[in-house]
Amino acid sequence: xxxxxxxxxxxxxxxxxxxxxxxxxxxxxxxxxxxxxxxxxxxxxxxxxxxxxxxxxxxxxxxxxxxxxxxxxxxxxxxxxxxxxxxxxxxxxxxxxxxxxxxxxxxxxxxxxxxxxxxxxxxxxxxxxxxxxxxxxxxxxxxxxxxxxxxxxxxxxxxxxxxxxxxxxxxxxxxxxxxxxxxxxxxxxxxxxxxxxxxxxxxxxxxxxxxxxxxxxxxxxxxxxxxxxxxxxx
Length: 234
Ligand SMILES: [Zn+2]
Prior knowledge:
- The protein is an alpha+beta fold and 234 residues long.
- The protein has helices at residues 2-19, 23-35, 41-91, 223-229, and strands spanning 106-107, 125-128, 134-136, 141-147, 159-164, 170-176, 178-179, 186-187, 192-195, 206-212, 220-221.
- Strands 1, 2, 4, 5, 6, 8, 10 and 11 form an 8-stranded antiparallel beta sheet that branches. Strands 3-9-7 form a 3-stranded antiparallel beta sheet, with no helix packed on it.
- A hairpin with a 7-residue loop joins strand 10 (206-212) and strand 11 (220-221).
- The chain is elongated, with a radius of gyration of 44 Å.
- Mean pLDDT is 77; it is low at 1-5 and 7-48.
- Zinc ion binds next to loops.
């Protein structure tokens, strides 16, 4: 009996040895079963334990894979976070560099227009608006003139402001009823700087707007063309 069972036990030993289990323990178990004449049960039990071992091994693999996947996901998240930070400034909406000095208006006298109102040609663009209409800085910059008498340019302008922008560009706002900034004030494009009026040599309530190449009278360029070249149509 035990002689007949030996080959089966040996096969089990070989199988288990192949599975990487300790041969000593398996041999002992196989012998014990064989001695009692229950060798048939031995392979089943051993196979079961081998399966358990294999399963444990597989689970360990799965656990390792899950761990690796989690690590990968974390890494991916980190990469995404880094990408997000890198992309953000590009995606952020840029504020417009130039805007209209008043929101609602009727265009009246335009640049270079002749007439009895001006000793020379008209030096700016007029926007007809009711007295008290918010006047906004057309671009970001620093206030270099602000006050009556055209801020120093002459009484014809009434209360006026001149803002210095980058690249040797200045903007001027005249005939104001109220000035809300001071010389040295930093302003943003679209920031309210005054209320429109009818001060100085003015034919009626309106904003007189100039773009200049210096802070002073006499250096004006076509403001409508300037705004248009900066993406603003009036
Ligand atoms: Zn004007």
